[in-house]
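Here is one chain, start to finish.
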Amino acid sequence: MRALKQKDGRAFLGASLSRYGYLPLPERTDYPDLPVGFTVNGAGEAASMGMTCAACHTRQIEVGGTAYRIDGGPGIVDFQAFLTDLGDAVRAVLADEKAFADFAEEVGGDPGALRNNLQDWSSRYDLFMGRALPNPAWGPGRLDAVSMIFNRVSGLNIGHDGAVIVENIAVADAPTRYPFVWNAARQDKTQWLGFGANGNDILGLARNLGEVYGVFADARPKPAPGTLLDVDYLARNSANWEGLKELENYLDRIGPPKWPFALDQALAAQGRAVFERSADAGGCADCHGKQRGAFRSLIHSTWATPVQDVGTDTRACRVLDRTVATGVLEGAKIPVLERPMAAEAPAFDVLAMTVLGAIVQHSTGFVNEIEKELIGKALGDGVAGHERIGNRFAPLTEAFPVSDGNTPHPLTKQTEGCAFEARVLEGIWAAAPYLHNGSVPTLADLLEKPAKRPGSYMPGPVYDVQRVGIAREQTAFAHVIVTPGCDAKSSGSSRCGHDFGTDLSAADKRALLEYLKSL
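Its structure:
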């Protein structure tokens, strides 16, 4: 990565990738040229660069020339531009003998082997990105993470002998904004579509492992007939299990950010009364108030996370309708599923199989000594062993609600509309833009009827203290996000829906905004 160059000859990692919105961290002692959330595993020839949660979930806003960095906030980063430019930079090295010679000298080692490895990487990468990345682009602050995860797992990871299953790679054109991650471990449900249960360590691991598979993990299961799972999910799997546990523990300690500017306490108190009204009266507490969630742990509690259709953009739900070829997973089973995998299956189920299978296989690292002995005995007990291990990992079926083999998938049985999670709103002031697809730049805009909300905006870090969100004038990026109205509810960027609070008086809206700042 250090040897790659931009088109103008400067280092690809120059200015810590800040041109994409990533945040420099020059005080770090290990790799001061890498931005927040970029890290290195291993050393020497075995070293690899990757991303952690922080790359996409650290926010920086600017007010009056002062920058405020917010741990856990949704990043205003242009991931698609980064992916595109990375592919271009590698192709430029391969296309020019002088460029390759300079690159090889800086990297070291055998130039012939380096070229072969780089060509193999580039061919696979370009095939994937060429089919997956959409036009128009997601733009800063948004990406279609679910589609990209489905694409990587079903397109790159499960082909026989490592082959790419090209037909499994679809255009990722249902962008959502990055969510904030403080209080994520306290949600009853996670993911915008609310399909992931939450509230204990194993569910947290399933959530994070699925994310890792979507962001550059090398996870290629291979057939293993006659074994407990029929597939070896850890044969080639770069997931850092201990790192995921450490990150989840840290995530649990991130609190919501405190509003750093002046606050009218009397007005905020009035706004609290508006917030606590019923939804019919323009209030928020019915969906976004703190209510106890489902019981899933003796040591952790969750907040209820209602999942409902409020008339917003529907394209994200259609992603869950995808079916794919199952490759090396065909015929495989794991203890938490009652049936083997068919030749074609919902992409969601393929993701579930790869995540749950890896966790079950790796399970002895996460259970006590008595359970280790029971699992070891079960490995030789055939059907009875499967049943016992299935009971141990039954909670994982909540993390990934797989289909029953019929269509449509249970997550998409609704014929119209699309349901999304409603989170507790602590720190919501730092999470613009709003709605799941990032189509509304400020909270003030969200309190207007959809027709009156902006039809486009420029994403960026400059913050509007009064309207609570992304300011209208930005300079960091030239990208414009177009947000059509309710006549384009399946566009992926529609500003339609969530009409709650739009009929409040101007005074009540001001008070409610002041209260939302205080959360």
